[in-house]
Design goal:
Strand content: 35-45%
Distance between the termini: 10 Å
Shape: elongated
Radius of gyration: 31 Å
Number of strands: 47
Structural class: mainly beta
Length: about 1000
């Protein structure tokens, strides 16, 4: 015991050097009693109010996820812990491969992760992105006692960007003892191993006037490849049911530059060397991931010390270093146009004749670029100084497995430090002042990308040993063979690692006074409470890439350049809240309480206009008696644009678009359509031969906008809480929410950009701005390919007139009862989303490229736990309602495929599918917890007990980030059955 005491005292002293308690924790209710929550303080105040009054009854609904629930789920990250909560829409996380960015985010109500606020103990922490979004990978789960999810009406309390609500991670306070936890998870297929270990030590010191805690954690997960699951081996077209893949293939595809259709691409026969019609799409799926590799080291410390009976100092320090890896199929020349010399030693003679003659048959005519004699002379040229040396323009779509996979490594290093002091002015009025500074740096390193300027150097060669330009280190490249035709030396020359660094910081100072006025209404027993204070926050963010990543079109298949971004803004705010108890302990009016709040914000943006805004709220609770309580709240918010929305320069990237209106034969017979396609830059000889975007990815030019105006939002919530005496242990709440955002800041969806031009075409459409801002590849006429010459769609960030809105109902039911030696506890959380509309697109219950992640109409979670002595058996049943293809998507593109899948796609061959419909899904998880001794607990969990496979919808019907591997892996379980074990030792 003496050794343990010395250990605790030593740790307390060390932690005090790092941190002195986090700011007071805010929550509506305590988590269910368990080993962890027993250590929590008994005084609880609410998430959603700055008034520290333990008797306060909050008008806002709060969904609480307890530490016990986190244990049953065997969650390894905060994103995993929240992914299955009804009402939260799956966002960027461990199941997102292409588009991950090294972060995990939360999206409350499906209106965007930038419209909810993530808090730690009621305070903001440094964001991890240009758009001000907190990275959930930084949250220290080991010390979390519960997670409060509050919908709406949080804008006056936490700031105007809390439009859809807040997610508040509440840590354990005054923790004493030692906790060591080790857990491991593996899939039924034997892959995806996930190791997590945490050590937490805390102790009181200075005769219990202070407390300090230190928590250290380590996590490591292995990849799960899409190619390791039958449903992910092949990329399937959502509209045709066939193997889709990419048009950038190996062997490659090329154009005949002097033909009547110079943009038409032909595959090369690597045996004969001749170009031919048709091609086999490149199957990129096996290289992609259902689970991204993840490694994290994290440290969290906090402490508090009572200087006197009325003054306390506190501090918090957190550090996290996360490494997320994403793996994509090999790079290549994705529609890159280069110059090629006719005497190139790797150019097959059959293809040379086709390029010289300008025809697939190789037959010369008067219109051929070269005569046969000129062609033969050019083929025999000795080098650039030879008068017969000639070049031609070659459009290349050649995948390059020889370069290896495209590997992304995102390493985020984050720290956030806070210190404060609080105390009492009187027995009922308290004050609090604290300051914090956080810094986050995300370094993205990529390897395996083709460098297009080096491809051009290597393509001009008169021998196999030297390039015609004489560039240092240049090795001639063979683009015309199958896999392996590019030599290791050429592959090494064609690629080079690149890096991009995103740095963010947040400095903040907060001061407030709260308590009660000491007087009350004659009809009430509780006094009037208030909070009054001010806050200052300064945000900075920057993006700096090396020269390769900054150059548009330089990295083959990178999705766009990484421009230099440097921006900042600061905001000063003043806020006030008032809680007015009106009536209590009267028949029919057990308690009636009104509340109100207002926040004034002044934003200063260097180089921008800045803005001043007011947000406000009002709420009412009416408890008829202890069994029935009604509540309602209204809030008005004004969200100013963030750094990414303001300062991002225009740059090219990729978006999702399966069908191009100019593709195929349609513009041949439609004069108005033909005129529009030509006005957008398509060459006349491409009409009738334009292809749909390869892999359903089109180019798009996006950027920030310093002229953005703030968006406004109105939120209404209302509901009832029931706790009937006739049913002890039972409670139920049902709440309606309605959120409307006007003048919303966003980029229009791809479908909207296409519809703005191509819907209701007339003779004047070819001169309309909506059409002419779309720019096509001048060689192929397509919306993909070279981003420099064909930037594609135009999606500048703007204030969209139709706004966004969502409404629905949350239902929470809890019940516990003891049957002799067996205790039964049940908890139910359900969400019904009536609508989720973003700039006119209805996405509740629908999926498409216009809708992003899945937003079910109805989603529930029911947990039943049976406790017999030291053993718990807990069963979780999750339900996700059916989904359908978005109607406007089906009209614009074509209905999704319904039928039997063709042969040649492995285990999926012959299956009957409907890619336009996802049936209702049910998942079951089972967890057993054994308390071997008071200080030793084992937990064993089986997740997705019945090994239910995800739904098949193909890989081209939704956005790349969420529709991947022929399903939606962030919403539906693509890993299959998993087994998790955990051992926890406490003393």
């Amino acid at each position: 015991m003496k050794t343990t005491s010395n250990l605790k005292t030593g740790v307390a002293s060390a932690a005090l050097g790092l941190a002195l308690v986090s700011a007071p924790a805010f929550a509506q209710q305590a988590a269910p009693a368990d080993a962890d929550s027993a250590k929590e303080p008994t005084t609880i105040v609410v998430t959603g109010s700055l008034i520290k009054n333990p008797n306060l009854v909050q008008a806002n609904p709060v969904n609480v996820v307890s530490a016990e629930e986190l244990t049953y789920k065997q969650s390894n990250t905060a994103e995993e812990a929240l992914r299955e909560v009804p009402g939260l829409v799956a966002d960027i996380g461990s199941s997102v491969n292409n588009g991950n960015g090294g972060q995990s985010n939360v999206n409350l109500r499906g209106l965007g992760s930038n419209r909810n606020v993530v808090l730690l103990d009621g305070q903001r922490i440094v964001p991890g992105s240009l758009n001000g979004v907190v990275d959930l990978n930084d949250i220290p789960l080991a010390l979390i006692s519960r997670v409060d999810v509050l919908t709406g009406a949080a804008v006056t309390t936490y700031g105007a960007d809390a439009i859809t609500g807040v997610v508040n991670f509440v840590t354990k306070k005054n923790f004493t003892g030692v906790d060591l936890s080790v857990g491991d998870t593996i899939t039924n297929a034997g892959d995806g191993n996930y190791l997590r270990t945490d050590l937490t030590i805390g102790s009181n010191f200075a005769e219990d006037k202070g407390n300090a805690v230190l928590s250290i954690g380590y996590q490591k997960s292995d990849p799960v490849y899409q190619g390791d699951r039958d449903y992910g081996k092949y990329d399937l077209s959502s509209y045709y049911g066939s193997a889709a893949g990419s048009g950038t293939t190996v062997p490659g595809r090329f154009n005949i530059s002097g033909s009547s259709a110079p943009g038409k691409k032909y595959s090369i026969n690597p045996t004969t060397g001749a170009l031919q019609s048709g091609y086999t799409p490149y199957n990129f799926n096996p290289f992609n991931l259902y689970q991204t590799p993840f490694k994290r080291y994290n440290l969290f410390a906090k402490a508090n010390y009572e200087i006197s009976d009325s003054v306390e100092v506190y501090t918090r320090a957190m550090f996290s270093q996360n490494t997320v890896e994403a793996i994509l199929a090999p790079s290549g020349a994705f529609g890159t146009t280069i110059k090629m010399n006719y005497n190139n030693p790797y150019l097959p003679s059959a293809m040379r004749l086709q390029e010289c003659s300008g025809s697939l048959s190789g037959t010369f005519s008067a219109s051929s670029p070269l005569t046969l004699a000129q062609c033969n002379a050019a083929a025999a040229a000795t080098g650039p100084n030879d008068p017969n040396y000639k070049t031609f323009s070659l459009l290349v779509q050649r995948r390059m497995p020889e370069l290896g996979n495209r590997d992304y490594t995102y390493q985020t290093t984050m720290y956030d430090l806070m210190a404060g002091i609080d105390g009492s002015l009187t027995s009922s009025i308290k004050w609090d002042v604290h300051a914090a500074y956080g810094h986050s740096q995300n370094v993205a390193t990529t390897t395996g990308y083709l460098l297009t300027d080096r491809l051009q150097n290597a393509a001009l060669a008169s021998s196999t040993t030297a390039c015609d330009g004489g560039q240092s280190g240049c090795v001639p490249v063979n683009l015309f063979g199958g896999i392996g035709s590019i030599s290791p030396a050429a592959a090494a020359y064609l690629t080079q690692p690149t890096s991009t660094t995103v740095t963010t910081s947040l400095g903040q100072v907060h001061g407030q006074v709260s308590g009660d006025f000491g007087w009350k209404l004659p009809s009430a027993s509780e006094p009037v409470s208030f909070a009054l204070g001010t806050e200052y926050r300064n945000y900075t963010a920057s993006q700096l890439a090396d020269s390769l990543a900054q150059t548009p079109g330089e990295l083959g298949g990178a999705g766009g350049a990484a421009p230099t971004i440097n921006g900042s803004y600061h905001v000063w705010e003043g806020f006030s809240e008032l809680v007015l108890p009106l009536v209590d302990n009267k028949p029919g009016f057990y308690n009636v309480t009104a509340e109100a709040g207002a926040r004034y914000s002044k934003y200063t943006v260097p180089g921008g206009a800045g803005s001043t805004t007011w947000t406000y709220k009002g709420g009412l609770t009416w408890a008829v008696d202890p069994q029935v309580k009604f509540r309602a709240n209204y809030a008005h918010a004004v969200r100013a644009p963030n750094i990414g929305e303001l300062f991002s320069p225009q740059s090219d990237g990729l978006t999702n678009l399966a069908v191009d209106p100019c593709a195929g034969a349609a513009p041949v017979t439609n004069a108005n359509l033909r005129a529009v396609c030509l006005a957008q830059g398509a060459p006349a000889n491409a009409i009738g031969n334009i292809s749909n975007p390869s892999a359903a990815q089109a180019n798009i030019l996006t950027g920030g906008n310093l002229n953005l105006k703030p968006e406004t939002a109105n939120t209404i919530t209302g509901g009832v809480v029931l706790q009937p005496r006739a049913l002890p242990g039972f409670s139920m709440s049902i709440d309606y929410y309605n959120i409307k955002v006007s003048n919303i800041i966003a980029v229009p969806t791809p479908g909207q950009l296409i519809s703005a031009c191509f819907d209701n075409l007339t003779a004047s459409s070819a001169t309309s701005t909506a059409c002419t801002v779309i720019r096509r590849d001048p060689t192929t006429g397509g919306l993909d390919g070279n981003q420099v010459t064909g930037p594609g769609l135009f999606g500048l960030t703007q204030n969209l007139p139709e706004g966004a809105k969502t409404d629905g109902i949350d239902l929470i039911v809890n019940y516990s009862h003891r049957f002799n030696a067996v205790k039964w506890s049940a908890s139910f959380v359900g969400n019904w989303t009536h609508e989720n509309v973003f700039n006119g697109e209805q996405c509740a219950g629908y999926y498409s490229a216009n809708c992003g992640s899945i937003q079910p109409h109805f989603q529930t979670s029911l947990r039943n736990t049976f406790t017999v002595g030291p053993v718990d058996l807990s069963i979780l049943w999750r339900y996700i309602a059916s989904e359908n293809q978005e109607p406007s998507d089906a009209i614009a593109n074509a209905p999704a495929f319904v039928g039997t899948l063709p042969s040649g796609i492995g285990a999926l061959s012959g299956q009957s599918v409907n890619f336009g419909h996802i049936p209702a899904y049910n998942y079951f998880d089972a967890t057993t917890r054994f308390t071997v001794q008071k200080n030793l607990v084992f937990t064993i969990a089986v997740l997705n007990v019945f090994n239910k496979a995800p739904p098949l919808v193909g890989g081209t019907i939704g956005s790349t980030a969420y529709n991947s591997g022929n399903t939606y892996p962030s919403t539906y379980d693509a890993l299959g059955r998993r087994f998790a074990v955990n051992a926890k030792v406490t003393f």
